[in-house]
């Protein structure tokens, strides 16, 4: 398997690859359950919990400032892909559209297909995080989370939820799907926060 699909990082790449990770030659697709197929004309995004309830359409998202991002991507299953080129919308730009109670300390990401994952609010609102709708210049395919996914480059990729369609703001930590099933609460790659203790 190593060599055909994955390779050890070179010395130069090593500074960018967290411990225990290998570089992928492709862009693996890992999904639990069926891949949702959602057209942009039916797609919607909701905000609730400790935030003023709001619903956004695809057009609402596309009206926000769009940016190009290049970010490394680290999967908990031990592969990394460097310099992934995305097009998307900064989380910080989206946050300007919504009203969040100051008591909110965690965010539950909700997705088409029923998937959830949690993230501390300070990890969520970082300047480098974004909602992606293109990868390498092409519309984000469904198998990679299209039409829209969150990308949180500083955490393992399961926190970059595919098919995202909502944010629930919480006053305390609650665990999402993978966190309830043995994955680490935060998932920081450089600390190898893969699984819960």
Automatic annotation (TrEMBL):
Transmembrane segments: none annotated. SUPFAM superfamilies: Oxidoreductase molybdopterin-binding domain. Residues 33-178 form the Oxidoreductase molybdopterin-binding domain. CDD domains: arch_bact_SO_family_Moco. It comes from the Bacteria. It holds the Pfam family Oxidored_molyb. This is Sulfite oxidase-like oxidoreductase. The lineage of its organism: Bacteria, Bacillati, Cyanobacteriota, Cyanophyceae, Nostocales.
